[in-house]
Write a structure and sequence with these properties.
Strand order of the largest sheet: 1-2
Helix content: 55-70%
Number of strands: 2
Strand content: under 5%
Number of domains: 1
Order of helices and strands: EHHHHHEHHHHHHH
Radius of gyration: 19 Å
Distance between the termini: 31 Å
């Protein structure tokens, strides 16, 4: 999710010395460690599903927000570099409550991935309306890249399903989270990227309304997905159709969800 900030930008942070943060590299190392450990110690694989998927989720969140930031940078907002958004550092993107706890709860309860971070873009530097749309689309593009990498991995290592079924199920669930995040986030609801893509071309009164309701519109939408059968059915029909289109086995992904719920 991307919050397009009107007015002055936040105070600029000092420039990072390295282009990629050590925190992000540590996440990559931890993700690979969990995967390798699951391969070499299959008796421990079940207990590693939760950390593998959780770390993978945070990595995908970083790439989602980096997508917003890199597009904003090329569209004219150089402040994203000073804020550290181009370093892939999750500490610049995440908020404990809305980026970790709330999405983790939704992942565990409903198997839905929510991009919970935010980058703050100074729209005064976005000289054309289409730039605002491109910046909003940059996040879903980052999510799509993560999904594509996972699908390429499944195609490149087809024997994973037989030789490492727990790892395969965990990665399939992580891929499912990317699918649900893409579909959910492209809904034209204030506060989501789907709204941000069309927002620059909407009437001024509708844009103002969207900014007013954005803080709680997403919460209402999430509640509706759980409470309104028709909306929930539409979401999952769309998800299953997308999984079939890209060749992701939804049954294996839901087996990964069950493994992710280590408390059950």
């Amino acid at each position: 999710m991307s919050d397009l900030q009107r007015g002055r930008s936040e105070p600029a942070q000092s420039l990072q010395r390295w282009p990629v943060s050590s925190t992000f590299l540590a996440l990559i190392a931890a993700f690979l460690f969990c995967a390798v450990w699951m391969l070499y110690r299959p008796d421990h694989a079940r207990s590693l599903v939760f950390p593998l998927v959780f770390i993978g989720f945070v990595i995908s969140l970083c790439l989602h927000e980096f997508g917003h930031a890199i597009v904003a940078y090329h569209c004219g907002d150089r402040t994203v570099r000073d804020k550290g958004y181009l370093t892939l550092d999750p500490l610049h993107y995440t908020d404990l409550q809305y980026s970790i706890i709330f999405p983790l709860l939704i992942m565990a309860l409903g198997g839905i991935g929510l991009p919970g971070g935010a980058v703050y873009i100074n729209t005064l530097y976005l000289r054309r309306r289409v730039y605002g749309s491109l910046v909003s689309a940059g996040g879903p593009l980052g999510t799509a890249v993560v999904l594509a990498v996972l699908m390429v991995l499944f195609s490149a290592v087809p024997e994973m399903a037989a030789t490492a079924p727990v790892l395969y199920a965990a990665l399939a669930f992580l891929a499912l989270l990317q699918v649900t995040a893409l579909i959910f986030n492209l809904i034209p609801c204030p506060g989501l990227d789907g709204w941000g893509i069309i927002e620059p071309f909407l009437p001024a009164a509708l844009r103002r309304f969207g900014r007013r309701v954005a803080p709680f519109a997403i919460l209402v939408l999430v509640a509706a997905l759980f409470l309104v059968p028709g909306l929930s059915r539409w979401l999952w029909q769309t998800v299953f159709a997308a999984c079939a289109l890209i060749g992701l086995d939804a049954r294996v992904a839901f087996a990964g969800l069950r493994l992710f719920r280590f408390w059950q």
